[in-house]
Design brief:
This protein is α/β, with parallel strands linked by helices and 415 residues long. Strands 1, 2, 3, 4, 5, 14, 15 and 16 form an 8-stranded mixed sheet that branches. The protein has an 8-stranded parallel sheet with strand order 6-7-8-9-10-11-12-13. A hairpin with a 2-residue loop joins strand 15 and strand 16. Helix 8 packs parallel to helix 9 and helix 12 crosses helix 13. The radius of gyration is 21 Å and the shape is globular.
Length: 415
């Protein structure tokens, strides 16, 4: 072994089975009887345990055949918000549709009112248990959107909370500014004025560093393709990457619009057509599928999974954790829903929360697979095969997680 590799590692895992999720023609990129070394927050060495010439590490952890995957990445959440919408859940069960509730002043507007009324500390406290639920199932990176403030003050409040969560917990937080989520009540008769207000927020957010990307909801009950294009033009001029809630309730050409702006991802996609899929493939835009919202809203229009496969568009998965259409904080259940409802394979589901989710956040070079040089974000599972992660419902086989090369313990937060 070269001399540089004889330096002390921080952690050495031995006798592991790896689901590397690196594209290598092997299901799950699986390797068995493997040792993995971590140094300075990155994966420093991977190889057969039997070939290991030295075990010079500060911490030695025999895994006794447990499976190691990349830490899970939840690439689409609305984790920070005020209030809840349990009453709307009951309304939908009596026959009210998502659109009907929204047009009657419920839906996003109800959460906007509660979020505006909440203090920053209040939002932080209510977001903590949602984040902790994700971490307990092996999430090491999470994207958090704004979009329930719809004023500069309230949107930045949400984004500050997201950053604080990343400081309080052993997790990587990426943020998305979703000011174009809905038209707030005070602009009900002035859509154009609100769009101008959102566009005017972008330079402030770009300078503050609070937003890693810009998102929008392109839909009949939200923003038109033309309005979205104006927003995205300004975002790109400011150097902010874009993402899009696209084609969830109808086909407005959102996927193709996202592709035209080189979006990191287009999300939902139930009504996306073949042309939209082809445009995403050409642009390298990731498809983010959200089966939790599909399930809760009792939708029947399936996303175009076969077309996405034909065009080799990477498919990511996410919980879409939000108070209305997806009050879901379980990536493992999300994998099961994706397999059961959308007919993804268990391998596609795991790729959706690792390799492809990293790409959906622009992090594919550093995260999402187990390869030397990538971040040492790991999830260690007490399972016999990787497919179990999508197979079981309501069962969590996580042994522990490693975040940036450190075995993770959730902090005790004083309330």
């Amino acid at each position: 072994m070269p001399e540089r590799e004889r330096e002390a590692w921080d952690i050495l895992f031995t006798d592991a089975r790896l689901a590397t999720m690196a594209a290598a023609g092997v299901p799950y990129g699986a390797r068995e009887g493997i040792a993995l070394a971590v140094k300075d927050g990155a994966i420093a060495w991977i190889g057969p345990t039997d070939d290991l010439l030295h075990r010079n590490a500060r911490e030695l952890l025999p895994l006794e055949g447990r499976w190691v995957t990349p830490g899970l990445i939840d690439c689409h959440t609305h984790l920070v918000y005020g209030g809840d919408r349990a009453a709307e859940f009951e309304l939908r069960l009596t026959g009210a549709t998502y659109e009907e509730i929204a047009r009657a002043g419920g839906g996003i507007a109800a959460t906007v009112a509660a979020t505006r009324a909440a203090s920053e500390d209040d939002l932080l406290q209510t977001a903590r248990p949602r984040l902790e639920a994700l971490l307990r199932e092996g999430v090491t990176t999470v994207e958090i959107k704004s979009g329930y403030g719809l004023t500069l003050e309230a949107e930045t409040k949400m984004l500050r909370v997201a950053r604080r969560l990343g400081g309080d917990y052993p997790v990587t937080v990426r943020t998305s500014f979703l000011g174009a989520h809905a038209v707030p009540p005070e602009y009900a008769e002035d859509r154009a004025g609100y769009l101008e207000a959102v566009i005017a927020m972008l330079p402030v957010l770009a300078e503050s560093g609070l937003a890693d990307a810009v998102d929008a909801f392109c839909e009949g009950i939200a923003f038109t393709p033309e309005e979205t294009a104006r927003l995205f033009t300004t975002a790109r001029e400011l150097g902010l990457p874009v993402k899009l809630h696209a084609d969830q309730l109808s086909n407005l050409g959102g996927a193709a619009l996202a592709a035209r702006f080189g979006a990191l991802s287009a999300d939902h996609l139930e009504y996306t057509d073949e042309d939209g899929v082809a445009a995403m493939a050409e642009a390298g835009t990731v498809a983010v599928l959200l089966p939790g919202a599909f399930y809760v809203l009792r939708e029947t229009q399936l996303p175009p999974v076969e077309a996405l496969r034909r065009h080799a568009v990477p498919m990511a998965l996410a919980t879409d954790c939000n108070p209305g259409s997806a009050p879901l904080t379980s990536p493992l259940l999300t994998m099961n829903l994706a397999c059961t409802l959308f007919r993804l394979t268990p391998e596609e589901a795991l790729a959706g929360f690792t390799r492809n989710a990293a790409a959906a956040l622009g992090m594919g070079e550093s995260h999402g697979t187990l390869e030397v040089g990538k971040a040492a974000d790991l999830a260690i599972w007490d399972i016999e095969r990787p497919g179990e992660l999508a197979y079981r419902m309501g069962f969590n086989p996580l042994t522990f997680a490693v975040q940036a090369g450190k075995r993770r313990e959730l902090p005790t937060i004083e309330c």
